[in-house]
Specification:
The protein is mostly beta strands and 99 residues long. The protein has no helices and ten strands. It has a four-stranded antiparallel beta sheet, with no helix packed on it. A hairpin with a 2-residue loop joins strand 5 and strand 6.
Amino acid sequence: MAEYAIFQTGGKQYRVATGDVIKVEKLDADGKIEFDQVLMVGDKVGTPFVEGARVVAEVVEQKRADKILVFKKKRRQNYRRTAGHRQFITVLKITDIKA
C-alpha cells in the first residue's frame, strides 16, 4: 500500500493519503467512487497515468462551498456591482490507494 497518491478530477490535481478528507468539484455519485486518473503513487510516476492504479473514496456529503463576493467598480463612473457565488462541491474521504 502506498503512502500517498496524486490524482486528477474536475481539471484539478489532489495529493491524498488514506484517511484524508478533501473537497472536489461536484461529482454525481453516492457511496464509493474510484478514480483511475492517478498521476503518481508513492515514488512511481505515470506517463501520464500510473498503469492500474486506483484511488478509492467514499462520498461524505454533497454541499455548497463558502460564499465568495465578486465586486466590480469603475472609478469616477458611479459603476459598482456586487455579486455572490457558491460553488457546488463534493466532500470525499479517501479509503484506499491501490497501486
